[in-house]
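Sorry, I am new here, but would you mind making up a protein's amino acid sequence and the tokens describing how it folds?
***
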Amino acid sequence: MKSKFNLFAIAAAATMAGLGASLTLATPAMAAPVLLLSNSVALSSEAMIERQEIGADGKERIVLKQPKDVIVVPGDRVVFTLRYVNKGSEPAADFRAVNPMPGPVQFVSVAEDWAEVSVDGGKSWGKLADLKVSVAGEDGAAATLRAAAAEDVTHVRWIFAKPIAPGAEGTISYRGMVK
């Protein structure tokens, strides 16, 4: 039998570990765990649980549910969406959003092909296929490198190539799976 997560534990973990209090947004000169920074870009975030349901027409469809509305169990897919809006009167140049992976969730994919991931706590970044992780050798043997995998991802980062115009808004997102 699969163990069940407290409905609010996954939502709290997502908020505390990656979608709220510890969400890091930054311009090159500034990084802070807050939702509103210089450049006046505000972020809000949402974690939704993806479920398959059978519609009245008998066809299977995918729906998104609030974590509070379902029992979250290992293997559930989670869609994390960050909404941004430039509330300032100037373009927000060099804007970055960095999101740590919540502890109980394993990275699956990112929606934007321009997003990067880290497998070392945010020290280095790139496409998952290009990253390596160090594996400790046994009995004092030297460490070796192996290709990074989804379970190694510690952070997701978006670097906006163009300034975010005043009043402009949009979303960025990534998917995870409850461990």
Summary: The helical segments are 7-17.
